Amino acid sequence: MRQYNNDIIGHLHWLAAHGKAATDEEWQELRGVANILLPGFIERLSTYGYAPNLRETNLCILIRLGFRPTECAVLMGMFVSTLSNLRKRLHTRMFGMSGGAREFDEKIRQL
Prior knowledge:
By secondary structure, the chain is mainly alpha-helical. 67% of the residues lie in helices and 0% in strands.
């Protein structure tokens, strides 16, 4: 998997390692960087018949950038089990089929 080097990405890894959730401003900066590093990615998330909300979009960006589920949970201020359930539900909503959290991650990384 490609490694991305950017100030906000490194900062978010640091926050996750220190048990801190991301702020609205940090999420906004991440989405801006995602538009540059992953051209068209955010738009492709809606091509499967379900438009993810802002929180779901943030999660997809983190997954696509290689963040671990535990890091995503910390940054989003939720339990790992809650995040896992969210990823399973998104798999069904976005791709129209049941599947696990890891299958969702694999599909997001391929977009």
